[in-house]
Structures are given as C-alpha cells and as structure tokens.
Design goal:
three-stranded antiparallel sheet; alpha+beta; globular; 68 residues; 3 strands; Alpha-Beta Plaits
C-alpha cells in the first residue's frame, strides 16, 4: 500500500475517493476510527492509501485534478 496524502477534511477525502474510483482505482482510508475517537477537533489526519501497483496512476490523477 502507498500513502497518497493525509487530511482532516472528510469532504475532500470523499471527493478524492470518488475521483480515484471513477478511474478504477480502489482507495482505502486509514485512521478513521482513531480520528473519530479523538473527537471532532480534527487533530488526527486520515490517510488515503492505494495499492502500490496503482500509485503512479493515482498520483497522476490527483495532480491533474489539482490535488497533489
């Protein structure tokens, strides 16, 4: 797995997952439960991960969307 980015913005994260899914890339979000446990202060970012085989293409897609 390769980390693409970290963010505390759940709306941005949702949009990025949809963007990658549209390109046929399955994304995984790590640290969701940890982020929820700390409350709603947004101190712990969630990590957006993809399979290592999809990482180069995923980074290109995010760059083209102005996100990386």
């Amino acid at each position: 797995m390769t980390e693409l980015l970290r963010t505390t913005d759940p709306v941005r994260l949702s949009w990025l997952i949809a963007l990658l899914a549209d390109a046929g890339i399955e994304a995984l979000v790590l640290d969701t439960h940890t982020s929820i446990l700390e409350g709603s202060i947004g101190a712990i970012p969630r990590r957006l991960m993809v399979d290592s085989d999809d990482a180069v293409r995923a980074v290109r897609i995010l760059r083209e969307a102005g996100e990386a």
